[in-house]
């Protein structure tokens, strides 16, 4: 066979992360810059040129040698929290080494640097605090918001901003100012999985107080020591942030993370037409779950438009999944009301009914059922609802451990050949059911995905991989694509394009015993593919503003790949501090000079 011709050189890759880096720092200042620091890997010439003689041991090591040493140090920590703290310390010293280590051992380290261990780190933020990593905005100093954000760079310096108010963190609730750690953790995943440059991001926490009495009683607590401020003052605070972002960083993506139920949906709907913004709890969860459902439908030989779905837990995540299912069906040709008629939401009130009125959130209201259709049924019993609906899909977002009982699961299996059952609540102890039980109760017929990592399940001599419905396979690619094409906003069709592309990467399409979603070890390639789909859709809708986006998919893949940051040591090029860019002076990103 004749090999394919070499791809033409891509003429316009604004964020290309290759070649030498200009650096105006030297000596101790250089070693203290996490984005430039190479530690023992500085070459002999670099040590001379950047005045590092005598500041480092004489041996010059490779990045891989450093990874081996760092991994040994990591393994010497005896519990997940100690390892989490070790990794946070490494990141503040040497970003390349940190990301290279995690990339090499991602399967092992993912649950340490993110959920579930990161939730423990957030809960103990004020106790283990060492140095500030993030942008701290105070609701009492709203007139300072724009000036504070301006310190993080010029309009062309920032690509991605994650903001939280810390009210609903990773299944552990209100963590106040400690929520800054979820902003930094999400940005770690944006870099690790999506290749977003780590010095072109801002992690933000909006300190509005906290309703967590344990924190208020803690003398070490680092946030505002009063109950949460809500209402008009809160709304004005968030709006001040958004308007400042629009003014200072007009091409950056604003990512809302772990806001409370009453605010998450409201903020997304208020601002999504004003700037490119995204809510991972709502949209990211919706995308990754729909991708798993799409793959499961293919395995079960069913059409997506024929599926009936019950969602147990109708908060931000549950309503987000319902919305994405609805949008996916609409973009596939179904009418809006027809699509909604295939979705049943169940929450603390039981099956959501129109008669619940003001007890329903704005996100829940479109899915409420007419009371007359359920007069003779028990709407507070999940088993009875399943018996009546006969759903193909049962999703758990309730944080109610064990809610999918044997009776519930067996009732599902009575009505469909391949029940699709996703207990998604985090952390693991809050899962609605254990995967092993689901397989046993359905005679191995269920198609399962979970919200946390689980080992494979053996049933009747067969081994089944349990897919993790991990948002990290979705939001980094969506964010990367939105950044690279400089989209005006994140449209519903862009998210649907992400769903389809992610579903196409499912290992289960080739082997039904494999996972419904790609493994986290393959996430960078997946993110690249998702970014391509997002960019193509943005171009089609006229939302992309970047000049010179390649037209062919092959060239577009290369264009995206060239701009994905990689954890490798780049040559440092000495530049004068006079007239040097802020990047060259180490003044950008989380690891900027302080």
TrEMBL record:
Tell me, what is one Gene Ontology molecular-function annotation carried by this entry?
metal ion binding
Question: Where is the Malic enzyme N-terminal domain positioned along the sequence?
Answer: 91-272
Listed GO CC annotations = cytosol; mitochondrion
Q: Give the EC class as a word.
A: oxidoreductase
Write down the EC number: 1.1.1.38
Q: Where along the chain is a divalent metal cation bound?
A: 257-258, 281
**Which GO BP terms sit in this record?**
malate metabolic process
Cofactor-binding details, from the entry: Divalent metal cations. Prefers magnesium or manganese.
Q: Where does (S)-malate bind?
A: 426, 470
Q: Which residues form the active site?
A: 114 (proton donor), 186 (proton acceptor)
Q: Which reaction does it catalyse?
A: oxaloacetate + H(+) = pyruvate + CO2; (S)-malate + NAD(+) = pyruvate + CO2 + NADH
Q: Where is the Malic enzyme NAD-binding domain?
A: 282-539
What InterPro entries does the entry give? Aminoacid_DH-like_N_sf, Malic_N_dom, Malic_N_dom_sf, Malic_NAD-bd, Malic_OxRdtase, NAD(P)-bd_dom_sf
Which cofactors does the annotated protein need, by name?
Answer: Mn(2+); Mg(2+)
Keywords on record = Metal-binding, NAD, Oxidoreductase
Alphabetical list of PANTHER family matching this protein: MALIC ENZYME-RELATED, NAD-DEPENDENT MALIC ENZYME, MITOCHONDRIAL
Q: Which family does it belong to?
A: Belongs to the malic enzymes family.
Q: Which NCBIfam families match?
A: PRK13529.1
What is the protein's name according to its record?
A: malate dehydrogenase (oxaloacetate-decarboxylating)
- What organism is this sequence from? Ascodesmis nigricans
């Amino acid at each position: 066979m004749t090999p394919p011709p070499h791809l033409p050189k891509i003429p316009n890759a604004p964020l290309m992360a290759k070649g030498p880096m200009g650096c105006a720092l030297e000596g101790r200042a250089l070693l203290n810059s996490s984005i430039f620091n190479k530690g023992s890997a500085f070459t002999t010439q670099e040590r001379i040129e950047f005045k590092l003689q005598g500041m480092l041991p004489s041996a010059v090591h490779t990045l891989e040698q450093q990874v081996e040493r760092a991994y040994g140090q990591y393994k010497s920590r005896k519990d997940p929290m100690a390892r989490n703290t070790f990794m946070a310390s490494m990141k503040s010293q040497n970003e390349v080494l940190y990301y290279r280590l995690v990339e090499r051992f991602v399967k092992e380290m993912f649950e340490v640097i993110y959920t579930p261990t990161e939730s423990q780190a957030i809960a103990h933020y004020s106790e283990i605090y060492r140095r500030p990593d993030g942008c701290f905005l105070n609701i009492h100093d709203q007139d300072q918001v724009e000036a504070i954000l301006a310190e993080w760079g010029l309009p062309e310096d920032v690509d991605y901003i994650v903001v939280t108010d810390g009210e609903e963190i990773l299944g552990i609730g209100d963590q106040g100012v400690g929520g800054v750690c979820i902003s930094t953790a999400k940005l770690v995943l944006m870099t690790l999985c999506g290749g977003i440059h780590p010095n072109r991001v801002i992690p933000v926490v909006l300190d509005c107080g906290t309703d967590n009495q344990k924190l208020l009683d803690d003398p070490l607590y680092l946030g505002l020591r009063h109950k949460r401020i809500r209402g008009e003052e809160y709304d004005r605070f968030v709006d001040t942030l958004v308007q400042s972002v629009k003014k200072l960083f007009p091409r950056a993506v604003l990512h809302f993370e772990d806001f409370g139920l009453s605010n998450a949906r409201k903020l997304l709907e208020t601002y999504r037409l004003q700037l490119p913004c995204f809510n991972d709890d709502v949209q990211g969860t919706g995308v990754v779950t729909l991708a798993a459902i799409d793959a499961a439908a293919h395995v079960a030989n069913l059409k997506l438009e024929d599926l009936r779905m019950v969602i147990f837990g109708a908060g931000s995540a549950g309503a987000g999944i319902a919305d994405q299912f609805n949008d996916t069906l609409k973009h596939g040709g179904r009418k809006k009301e027809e699509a909604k008629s295939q979705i049943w939401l169940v929450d603390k009130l039981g099956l959501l009914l129109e008669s619940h009125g003001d007890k329903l959130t704005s996100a829940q209201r479109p899915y409420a059922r007419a009371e007359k259709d359920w007069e003779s049924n028990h709407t507070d019993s999940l088993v009875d609802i399943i018996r009546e609906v006969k759903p193909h899909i049962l999703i758990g977002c309730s944080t109610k451990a064990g809610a999918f009982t044997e009776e519930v699961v067996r009732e599902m299996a009575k009505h469909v050949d391949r029940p699709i059952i996703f207990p998604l609540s985090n952390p693991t102890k809050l899962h609605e059911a254990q995967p092993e039980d689901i397989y046993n109760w359905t005679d191995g017929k269920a198609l399962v995905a979970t919200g946390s990592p689980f080992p494979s399940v053996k049933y009747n001599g067969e081994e089944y991989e349990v897919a993790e419905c991990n948002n990290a396979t979705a939001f980094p690619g969506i964010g990367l694509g939105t950044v690279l094409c400089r989209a005006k906003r994140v449209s519903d069709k862009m998210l649907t394009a992400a769903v389809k592309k992610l579903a196409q990467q499912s290992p289960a399409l080739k082997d039904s015993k494999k996972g419904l979603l790609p493994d986290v070890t393959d996430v960078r390639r997946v993110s690249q593919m998702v970014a391509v789909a997002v960019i193509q859709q943005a171009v089609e809708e006229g939302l992309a503003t970047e000049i010179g986006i390649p037209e062919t998919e092959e060239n577009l893949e290369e264009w995206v790949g060239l701009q994905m940051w990689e954890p490798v040591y780049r040559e440092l090029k000495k530049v004068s501090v006079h007239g040097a860019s802020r990047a060259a002076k180490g003044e950008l990103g989380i690891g900027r000079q302080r």
